[in-house]
Amino acid sequence: MEREKHNIVRVSNVIKSFKLGKVDVQALKGIDLEIQAGHYISIMGPSGSGKSTLFNMIGGLDKPTSGKVFIDEVDIAQLDAYELAWLRCRKIGYIFQTFNLIQVMTALENVTLPMTFAGMNSDDATKKGIRLLDLVGLGDRFQHKPSELSGGQQQRVAVARALANDPAIILADEPTGNLDLSTGEEIIALLKNLSAERVVTVISATHDFKMLNVSDQVVWIRDGRVDKIENREELSISLGTIGAIE
Amino acid sequence: MTEILGDKASASPTDQVSRLVVLPFKKSIEISFKNIQVRFFRSMITTMSLVLAVSFLCFTNVGMQVADGLLASGDPDKRQVLINAGYDIGPQDTSVAATAKQRWIVILSLIVCVVGIVNAQLMAVTERFQEIGTMKCLGALDRFILRLFFLEAGMQGLVGGGIGALAGAFFSLITATISLGTVALIQVSWLNVAGSVLWATLVGFFLSLVGVFYPAIVAAKMQPVEAMRTEH
């Protein structure tokens, strides 16, 4: 069980600066972070804290100005465009706030698209796609277009799509941001179950305090730095105060 | 667990080929065909300027072939019919050449059509930013996006060009029949008319590809992080 201690993501002294007009703005001011495989991580922080920048960096969507980001011990700065695409296709599953299903495709086609990219033949992809949609509770709706599904159902399809190539990491960017309370809770429970069953690392950027209940670890980002990292045990204490605020 | 381990094992450098993301050609055609189908109205607008320009091109060419057909008969009466209809023919001419002005109008209409296509395709790219970004997050390479846009434009070009060419030929023949009489339809070389239709269709196909060139590059160069943006 040494894999349990394996760091799936390692962020080492990452600085990211943007040019805003003629001024350099540092969004990340030196972040160090280690994320263990199979954990459920929430990245919390106010908007403008650098949360999204860090999140994109972990997802291989952006490269740091200095410092290194390792995904599965591979430095993503060393990867060329093809390898990055492969990484995004096979290692990482993305879930978006706005669901981002491809509107012209059915639920099933949305789920099988990443498998097609990964080179799976169409029969196997269809079988696996239906199995995944079953898993998220949409087994009977695979022929529906996204516009014919509710927000919660669309997000379920997105979860199934994220799982298409059995990724090591699922990156969820405010997955409950566009959902009502109970639907949001369902999606969180679904993610938590999947994370536990399939040993997938779930990393989500969120404002949603409901997320904290299920997180193994919460990373608080403030002003481009890691403010604090709380493990599950410590969380229950601070959760009391958060509950009071809400 | 085993799947993750399996992935790890296949990540050795000797296995580079299997690490390439793929999109089979058949699948690309399927996706782009569906795109046109679903966005039928938008595709129609994109194709409309092409239909009009190609039909104008074909109209002009077929009109000349009708006149050529009449001239080729060598019958002075038919030559007179042409001159009466306003054709400027010298006594030694055996074919009706397009005047410089005519050529210019055709070329201008084709240029305007390409600009129209670029405009419409850029709009389409903007509308589809999130979709393209999402595809890239799922592992799509730049060239997948390029290929999808070119395939769509190619299909639009063939269909739009074909419709335009047929319509142009049809109206050209009707106009000729009205102004020159049914003799125009008897004398015209149908092989040449078919040639004109084919030529105009190919021009339409080519112009559609030229028009999508820049928008497709804009789409393909898009960063996947755009998919994360929520404000649209």
Distance from N terminus to C terminus of chain A (CA atoms, Å) equals 39 Å
Strand order of the largest sheet of chain A: 6-7-8-3-9-10
What is the H level of CATH, i.e. the homologous superfamily of chain A? P-loop containing nucleotide triphosphate hydrolases
**Uncertain runs of chain B:** 1-16
State the helix count of chain A.
Answer: 7
Tell me the β content of chain A: 25-35%
Tally of extended strands of chain A?
10
What letter string, H or E per element, gives the SSE order of chain B?
HHHHHHHHH
Structure summary, number of beta strands of chain B:
0
Low-confidence stretches of chain A: none
Radius of gyration of chain A, whole Å: 18 Å
CATH fold title of chain A:
Rossmann fold
Report mean pLDDT of chain B, rounded to a whole number.
Answer: 86
* Cα end-to-end separation of chain B: 39 Å
What oligomeric assembly is this protein in? heterodimer
What is the typical, i.e. mean, pLDDT of chain A? 88
What does this structure look like?
The complex is a heterodimer of chains A (246) and B (232). With 246 residues, chain A is α/β, with parallel strands linked by helices. Chain A has helices at 51-58, 81-90, 107-117, 122-135, 151-162, 181-198, 232-245; strands at 7-20, 23-36, 40-44, 66-71, 74-75, 92-95, 169-173, 201-206, 217-222, 225-231. Chain A starts with 6 loop residues before the first strand and ends with a helix. With 232 residues, chain B is mostly helical. Chain B has one domain (35-226). Chain B has helices at residues 2-10, 25-38, 40-72, 76-84, 100-127, 129-137, 142-180, 183-187, 190-220. In chain B, helix 2 crosses helix 3 (40-72). The model of chain B is unreliable at 1-16 (pLDDT under 50). The chains are: A alpha/beta (246), B mainly alpha (232). At the A-B interface, helix 2 and helix 3 of A face helix 1, helix 2 and helix 6 of B.
